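Review form for a predicted model. The reviewer records the input and the model, then writes brief findings.
Reviewer: anonymous (R2)
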Amino acid sequence: LTRQCIGTDGLKFDTIQEAVNVAQAGDTILIRDGIYTEESITIANNGQVGSPITISGYGSEKPILQNFPEPWDGNGNKAIFLLNRDGQGNYIFKQLIMRNSGFGFHFFSPTLRVHDIKIENIEMYNHLAGIRINPDSPGVERLYVLNSIVHDTRGDQGGFDFKVNRLDYRAGKGSRDIIIRNTKTYNNIHQQASGF
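Model under review:
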């Protein structure tokens, strides 16, 4: 976005949700260092092929996004980013720290896949799972997780709860083209049929 967001210029966004409500294809939302407490941030519009909506830390800064100030052990439906609209996609998320929520990212669209999502240089911890593809949704198409870390999850769904194990009766559920590269996971408990 080309909006000046410094100090008290009267134009700054007060929340990340406010910024994503107006972001259009090709816009970049840069978040300054700090701790941002928001719940289930939902992007209003789609990016386009070649013109994604990008949400990133500013410069070399890695802001912290959280649902709660302390680790949270409650309802798993809370997330930092909730992607729950049919056909939602063409987003890049990078250079963020995400903590203290049910999920860092929760993909849960009703009838059409979420698509073309790139998650890069993100650290996620103190979640039930870092990334969850809800088994009752049609899934995700073209999800790229690069150079990220998921650690110290608190649930039994693992760092990534994708339901891709054939032991799970809802395995796969339509997701395809999921690529995870140069990404570390540690101290994550997972069910045999659920995550990793």
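Findings: Residues 16-22 form the longest helix (7 residues).
Further findings: The two ends are 36 Å apart (CA to CA).
Recommendation: see findings above.
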